[in-house]
Amino acid sequence: RNTMKQAPVGIAILxxxxxxxxxxxxxxxxxxxKKENEFVGNPLFDTLPEVEEAxxxxxxxxxxxxxxxxxxxxxxxxxxxxxxxxxxxxxLYHPLKEEDGKIxxxxxxxxxxxxxxxxxxxxEESEQRFQAAVEAVEGILWTNNGKGEMExxxxxxxxxxxxxxxxxxxxxxxxxxxxxxxxPTLDAWNEALQERKIFIFEHRVKTKVEGYKYFSIRAIxxxxxxxSLREWVGVHSDIQDQKVREEKKDEFISIASHEMKTPLTTxxxxxxxxxxxxxxxxxxxxxxxxxxxxxxxRLNELISxxxxxxxxxxxxxxxxxxxxxxxxMIESTVExxxxxxxxxxxxxxxxxxxxxxxxxxxxxxxxxxxxxxxxKYSPGAEKVFINLAQEKDSITVxxxxxxxxxxxxxxxxxxxxxxxxxxxxxxxQGLGIGLFISYEIIQRHHGRLWAESKPGKGSTxxxxxPVKQ
Length: 469
Ligand code: ADP
Hints:
45% of the residues lie in helices and 28% in strands. By secondary structure, the protein is of the alpha+beta class. A hairpin with a 2-residue loop joins strand 13 (383-391) and strand 14.
């Protein structure tokens, strides 16, 4: 009896048809929130009327048949700590036999498993929610382990690619990626594995039914408490139609700008001749010819930019690398732009010490783009700043304005093709390709182009490139 009293599971001895509580240990009393003196000695259902419906028949059965009863995670309403709720119990009702074999009562051994059951329910609910999310997203969901390998069953992946279980395990999934996209995918994937940050990418995957198709990928890393990678949950979304539309648009722009370039060059030549002839004998007409010539030049620049975009798309933007005096290039660029701006002064500071290897025209194009943007997007300001600096083997150019600035969520996007910040697009003209081209050019010089900005507080654009390529 003493051992029973101290046992960590609830034990009670119930006698007779009324189930008079002959003994209940501390654990049992705690389970039902009763004092020993109010519980022991009384019929069970007098003190616990709320459990009668759930257990009376079970007890009767044990008493009548002598067959023990095992209850597993049985929900039983219990009135405790001032309110009635359903709790879950594992229990054993064992018949108590007298020496003559008659059954005189039941011994009840009870443990509470409410927490376990509720936790499991929560897990089941969350699993259900996850399954619903899988079905709700338009995409193929997959998981990878902390090493970037596919592990276990991936039914979505299998039906997308037609790969068998064995084929996609480990890095087998990568074999479905288009050969041209395979290396960039692995490079970006390795970087994401190192940095443990959300993986965003686009590539072509060989699908089971329709051959190669474009997908955009987003994968979220899940970390262990110690910060190490546990697994990835990723989605492949079909963007083939969107890509086709984009390609058609790019192609159209490319053809249209090619077509426009020829008549424009001719018009430009005639305008220049006209300007020369008129300069001698008609001042007004000469001024108009000059203005027309300036507009044609601007148009020419726009078309060249559009053509650059299509060259980038086809990987045909050509570079001519030479070694040149970077300071001089910057000075003449600043001078030229200063000539076209009546509103802003361009303040240049710093310098680089060594000659720089790169494509002088393309780098100039970047600087022009950053400076004209700085002027364009700071309408009230009087100054824009450009600073040069060299640190060992790399140089940094900083272009700073006190203009309208860029919101955080737009900062990454401004380097994308055709991207213009929505709030700006209403007030400022542009095609949203200058920074895209600049980004490509700086990348090609193995450098980095980025921006820091706060709305209303101005923007600072930086690029660094190595001194030698
Ligand atoms: P465009 O100026 O022709 O629109 P860009 O590619 O040069 O195209 O720039 C993309 C977008 O980035 C711009 O539309 C503008 O919203 C934003 N942006 C670029 N430079 C600045 C700047 N200095 N200040 C504020 N916004 C800028």
